[in-house]
């Protein structure tokens, strides 16, 4: 009340015809800030936001720490295995050791195939702390083994409780996407209606000030207060959890802009509803419905439509198809093997060991050739399936534009490197790497070639290509701007009506 | 104002004639009439009904498609198993087969963890595998926003609708000061509260009947071989009924306590967010922090460590294999393996499989006990959020929870051991003296099909008594809270 008396008297003194002078603005800002920071509900909401953001950042940091440790462990395991193999080859060459079985013979392709798997891994983005995204569904590494066709499946596994995946993890993206808009709406829904309901609006309207400008100013102060608060806390949390903001300034800037645009969207929506002149209860119910609409209904409807319009057969069919191809190949093995060697003449060998199924080399060549043929026969259908999955996901990516919440969700997981696109690209690139590695090893194995330590040291290395996951920041920026423009136009139209109504 | 006039005049006439029970009914009737005349309420109701009906129809269709696919793929998996070429039965065991997770009709209502758990388990030699083919991995990240299913609407949207319908149930009376008029006419605050509670309840029950009766009728026409008993439908419907009652109680309480409609709505929305969004996520984090699952690598390393010195069907030389050989020789009263009347290799494979399966069972049980500890955390958090208790029971009765997944995987493992034993014993019985023993379709087709028996509903109910207690406690306490604070409304 004290603030209002000051504020009202200040307006009474204003002589400008509908405009606020710099001094007016400065005073109003000061008084609004005093009022805001005496408001226990507002401070309470900021405190809740602060606690949730700290919890979310810590949780995400811990989550990825475990994942990073696991990737490091796996990489070390591969390095140790390779070094052991190299050392054993050297010992063999120096006649310091003897081996009886091709399973243990270090120069044998069988040993390399079964004991020295490869590893592909998705590097962690410095900003992974902002969104777990699809990270709880996938592992950030994939073991490339040649004795099962699992290396060619678009899958990577980790032990996770499906309940964790169902309820989701608390991360900063959740706080920003779901809770920040609500806090914005709760602090701004009744800026004008409260004045009307308490009878103070008539006093303001009687002064030479345009009401919509007064509302805009008040809302802007609240907007800036919350936005600055979010940015300061976010920056502090990013620094606290070792995110190098200087080296990654571009992404940091994208994050700030995304948060700015998203917050501005909800403030402008609130401004629009304020201008519409509803009661406090009605304004809140409209804004809350808007929140439910943009954050829940639209995305869930898009998901539903995506499934309806891009129906995909069950993956069970793919598994059965692989099994059927395997049976078909086994029932026609001789012809299939001939075709295999026609396709890969350099895999063919006259060495009797390679054709003798009673020894481990011959048996494994036969076994691995069968796996290979089945996978090649299956890959067209598997590829088609993955193409359908991509099409559906692309469809959703296009229709994400209908909800700002979907746009920023996509943007945050892009920045964090944890989007579905990142993981699927990682699995795709892993498949390609597995194929390249298999060609290299099988050529040696099938011809009973003795692998050298130099070859082991120079085995193909996987490197994730980030360029194959293009960012969508520019699109997101343009679409969010379009939303803001539409809201601004609506606000401008409504502000004239509000002014006219109050004058009448 | 029209409502106020109706209220005051009708009460004047009604009071002498109606007893107290009828008075509550009268209040509820007028509250309902007020809602029906309100365009906002009508729109919300229509939108919710349309969403419910649409989600129900689509869920029904999804279920039918998924069930058809399940049946077709089950047949295809069996056909693949039977049509494989002649080979060593142990090679066939290595190639293995698949068992597919069936879908219970109640999954139409609550899909639970189905999207996040695998659909199929590969059954092969020497190794117990977890279910794979997680549908969520095929989805874009946008699926985390949720899917418009009956479960989603029941859990999130119906409580929200109730809040929108009833947030001003008392505050409007206070703001317009009609509450004084009602009190002057002899209406007690507690009866007013019960009447308003009843009005919200009746609106809710219409939606509830629409959904559950619709789903029940639809499920009867699915043509599924799985029959859901009426008691299961009632249990599922009942738990949601209590969930909604809790929200109605909270609405009446907050509206009675709040000074304005804005404050009431703000408070209720905050409660809704805490119950449905924040606590489930925080409880997930708490469960994960306090009782984490091992990484897959650690899990496998532990199993390998236990298996290192044990029986393995392919290792004839280690100590465990030597002990087993001696046991077999003693059993048959012969000196050497060559003197045995059966193929020793097959026996070793069968025994090795049993041993390996015991190791797997031990480690999977440890994992399961870790999950049970996590569930205790969820149960404690259920004291703060009834949504958790409701969701856990709802998923369990719909056979879409983690308990069902464990049960299915455990049954699949039993089948895997029996499957491998049959194949390995076939070697033991037939491969003696044969150079390259192979079997064919005759053997493959004698392996029985996997026949999964659903968990009985009684055991599910018994396993969720804590959740029920939590829900009843919430419903009882919140009702008392609503009535108590309604009687304390300050009218002057």
Task: Offer a quick outline of the entry.
Chain A has 504 residues and is mainly alpha-helical. Helix content of chain A is 70%, strand content 2%. The radius of gyration of chain A is 32 Å and the shape is elongated.
Q: Any low-confidence stretches of chain B, pLDDT <50, length ≥5?
A: 1-7
Going by helix content, strand content and strand pairing, the class of chain A is: mainly alpha
Tally of strands of chain B = 2
Measured by residues with Cβ under 8 Å of the partner chain's Cβ, the largest interface is:
A-B, 85 and 83 residues
Rounded Rg of chain B: 31 Å
List the strand order in the largest sheet of chain A: 1-2
Q: Can you offer a commentary on this structure?
A:
The complex is a heterodimer of chains A (504) and B (492). With 504 residues, chain A is an all-alpha fold. Chain A has a domain of 198 residues. Helix content of chain A is 70%, strand content 2%. The longest helix of chain A is centred in the N-terminal third of the chain and has 54 residues. With 492 residues, chain B is mainly alpha-helical. Chain B has one domain. Helices cover 71% and strands 2% of the residues of chain B. Chain B contains 18 helices and two strands. Chain B has a two-stranded antiparallel ribbon with strand order 1-2. In chain B, helix 2 packs across helix 8. The N terminus of chain B is likely disordered. Chains A and B meet through helix 3, helix 5, helix 6, helix 11 and helix 12 of A and helix 3, helix 5, helix 10, helix 11 and helix 13 of B.
